[in-house]
Each structure stands twice: as structure tokens, then as C-alpha cells.
Request: fold
Amino acid sequence: MNKRSLGSKERRPRSVSVLGSTGSIGCNTVSILENQRDQYQVIALTARSNVKVLVEQALRLKPRMVALSEERLYKELKQELSGSGIQVGAGVDAVIEAAQLSADWVMAGIVGTAGLLPTLSAVRNGAIVALANKECLVSAGDLLTKDVAEFGAKLLPVDSEHNGIFQVFDFDHPAAVEKIVLTASGGPFRCFTKDEMMRVTPEQAVLHPNWNMGQKISVDCATMMNKGLETIEAFHLFPIEKRQIEIVIHPQSVVHSMVSYCDGSMLAQLGTPDMRIPIAFTLAWPERVSVPVARLDLAEIGKLTFESPCEVSFPALRLAREALELGGVAPAVMNAANEIAVQGFLDRRIGFLDIIKIVDRTLCKYPTLRAKTIEEICEVDSESRRLAEEFMVSS
Ligand code: NAD
Ligand code: MG
Reply:
């Protein structure tokens, strides 16, 4: 699907679905849709358990269907939306059913591999998929991108770094690209010693210095596993080799990422740290829309700084690179173990430094296999979660 054929064949309003509509990405997406009501027809909204926000969004946006993955909430949701004419579902299958409804554009905004099957449904419908849910690309990148090609879907990265790269990557001349450089803020503990990190609390870890995000990704930023996941995400999104992906620490989060070319040029995409920018880019693609976000004032910022990342302080970076090199199911194992360990830390069952130790142990224990189907990836995901849970109990 190229830009021209898509732009000319599609009729307005664009039909859209938002998976994970009650989360940080989801709410930002909904706010953009509300600003441009006449441009979009909302097909489906989904969430896990937040009945209140989902109902408010549904009454304002009038989707065809809403679904919660928690089955026990069906009655409550049904009652809240009675008389609205909106179809209601609850349970994992209901979320997939909502994701299967035909829509031109789908926001994959569920967190974790819980988003894999719904995202895959949108891909198999041939939709434009705005991909925020990086975990599903980390776990099942080969299979997902194969389906994107087979079903004529289009993956547009929402992650700010990848969205920035997408905007400056010369897809017509990929051989001219020398490397891509992912920027990383370094998270809230960039300057912490090991001793200080040992004592950090969930409250400290979820406070990102520049971005306001969901809890899981905020902890991932603090361990820098987020940048590890993004390294693997970049490998699947762009026509590059593993060795062509670099990371640089940039605490201000203004330069969202860069592409280096063989003639010595380096192209970067800059903006204020506001996820509405990449979300709106994907929503309007291949055009652009006006978004009411703060404009970048470089003179006011004055100084942008860059430094090399430290793999000793942040072993997640090395681990993710190893998983990418190992290939097969290793990234899926790493991701699943990380989801369990992050939740364990948020629930105060383990300390901050235990998160990556548990991921490391799970990755070492798991045999390096290849997965040929999504069902096999789902099995690996469950088995790795079980192993990580065991390590967590014994740690
Ligand atoms: P969040 O926790 O704020 O929201 C997650 C959404 O997914 C919610 O709507 C929740 O109800 C839904 N959800 C959670 N578990 C579910 C389940 N088991 N089944 C169905 N739905 C479920 O998370 P977020 O910060 O919005 O992040 C969403 C995704 O986007 C993540 O993969 C994250 O890495 C990625 N991302 C987020 C940001 C950001 O700024 N928040 C930036 C880049 C990438
Ligand atoms: Mg990012």
C-alpha cells in the first residue's frame, strides 16, 4: 500500500477503532478524535476494566461497539450503555471481536502481549495499524510483519522514536542508510548509583521526567528495558540490520530520533514530548492535521545534550541486544518475563533491581526455539510468565 493509492482510494470520514482507549495512549487518541469529530467515524473502543472512562468515551464518540476484557464487568457496562444503541461485549474474545470489525485505521494501544491477538486481527483486516503496543512486535515481530505484507495492512509507528525515524527514513533508498539512532531520556534514575537504585519505590519509578505514561512503560523507562524493547521494535519496523541500531542518551526528549546516511547527513525529527504529535501523524497519514500541542521553542530550551548509555548501570540494554541476536523466541521470553517482573515490582513483591535479574534468569533458562505460528508464540509467552513467576517467588 503506497501513500498515493491509499490517499486517493479512501473516502472521508476515516473509520477508526481504538484498542486500549482508556489508557494514556488511548485517551490522547480519543482527545484528537474529539477535536476532529467530522473527520472520523468511530467503530470500536476497548479497555480492560475501566467502565467509567469507557462509558464516557462511548457516549461522546458513539462507536458501533465497546468491549472490556474483564468478563465480570459485562452487566455493569451493558446497564450503563442501555438505550445507547452501542453493542457491548466483555471478555478476551469480545475485545478480539471488536478489533475484528472492519476499520480503516486502528490504534493498537493495549499494553503488553494482551494486545497481540487484537492487533493481529486489525492487521488481518488490512487496516492502517497505528502501533503503540511495542510488546506485540517484540514478541511476534517476524509473524506480525509477515501478516502485514500478506494482508496488505500498514504499520505506522506511534512510539515517538520510531515515529520520528519513520518521518525521516528514506524508504526509497534504504541502502543509503548507515544507521538509526534511538534517543533515550535515561529515565528518572539516570544518575543514580546501584545502592540508590536498590531502594527505589514504585512511586518514584513511575514518575518519568518528561513523559506522562502508563505505569508499565514508565517502569520500563526507569530500568531502560523500554529502550531494549524499542531496539527490537526498530529492527522489525525498518529495513536495517541489527548492528545498524544505536542508542544515545538525550535527557531533554526533544530530538525523538535520527537517521544517519552514507553521505554524512544525519536527519532528525524534533518536537515537544507530547504523544499527541505521533498519534496525530498516524491518524492523518499520509496527510497532516493541525494539533493543538505546544510548539518547540529551541531558543527557550537553549541546550540539548547527548551522552552514551551505560550498560553496566542498565543491564536491560545488553539483555535486549542479546535477545535480538539470539532471535527465535528469545525476545518473546524476555518480554513476557519483563511484564511479570514489572508487575511484581509495582505490587512490591520484588525490588527494582530484581526486575532485570528475573528477566535474565528466565531468558537463560528458556531454550532457544523458533516459533512458526502465533499460537506457538502465545504458548512461549505463557510458559515464560510461569517461569518468571517461579523466579520471583524464590527471589
Ligand atoms: P496504559 O496502562 O495507560 O493503558 C493501557 C490500555 O490497555 C488501557 O486502556 C487498558 O484498559 C488496556 N489493557 C490493559 N490490559 C489489558 C488486557 N489484558 N486486555 C485488554 N486491554 C488491556 O498504557 P499506555 O501508556 O497507554 O501504553 C500502551 C502501549 O503503548 C504500551 O505498549 C506502551 O509501551 C506503548 N507506548 C506508550 C507511550 C505513552 O506515552 N504512554 C509511548 C510509547 C509507547
Ligand atoms: Mg518510545
